Amino acid sequence: MDLFSTERAIPTGCKRHNLMVAVSYLLMSLMKIPSSDRKPVTVDGIKQWYLTVCVTMPNLDNKVRVVILWKYKNDVEPRKILVTNKIHWNAERIIETYTLARQ
User: Fold this and answer.
1) Alpha-carbon gap, residue 58 to 56, rounded angstroms
2) Residue 51, in any domain of the structure
3) How far apart are CA 16 and CA 43, in angstroms?
4) Pair 40, 49: CB distance under 8 Å
5) Residue 49 — very low, low, confident or very high, per pLDDT cuts 50/70/90?
6) 74 part of a folded domain
7) Beta strands in 1-103 (DSSP E)
8) Which are the contacts of 38, defined by CB distance < 8 A and separation ≥ 6?
9) pTM over 0.90
10) Residue 5 counted as domain residue
């Protein structure tokens, strides 16, 4: 699975493109974080492992919270990455809100 590929091209210069570039850069940095820093979370009976960080993205006006999810604690590649401007939300609320909306 290639984390940085998209099904359709995002025009350069738009906020979504800037966000994707910033998230890609952030993920490359986060890949070096050991699995011991991941925390368990259970939402709707499904146990996953997550890491969350609140950052200011380059070329954006506000902070965002990034939640990275792995199916197993020692997985190399994450199964899902969620980005939101709801920086005051905890990881469980973000996972409940954004994963249920996609089903």
Assistant:
1) 7
2) yes
3) 28
4) yes
5) very high
6) yes
7) 39-43, 46-56, 63-70, 80-84
8) 49, 50, 51, 70, 73
9) no
10) no
pLDDT attached to residue 15: 59
Identify the residue whose tokens are 């979504």.
16
User: Which pair of structure tokens corresponds to residue 99?
Assistant: 């994963």
CB 40 within 8 A of CB 91: no
Single-letter amino acid, residue 57: M
* Closest to 62 in 3D by CA, of 82, 86, 38: 86
Over residues 73-97, the pLDDT tens digits come to 998 888 888 888 899 999 999 999 8
Higher pLDDT: 99 or 27? It is 99
The two tokens of residue 59 are: 């070329």
Identify the pLDDT of residue 66.
Answer: 87
- Total count of domains within the chain: 1
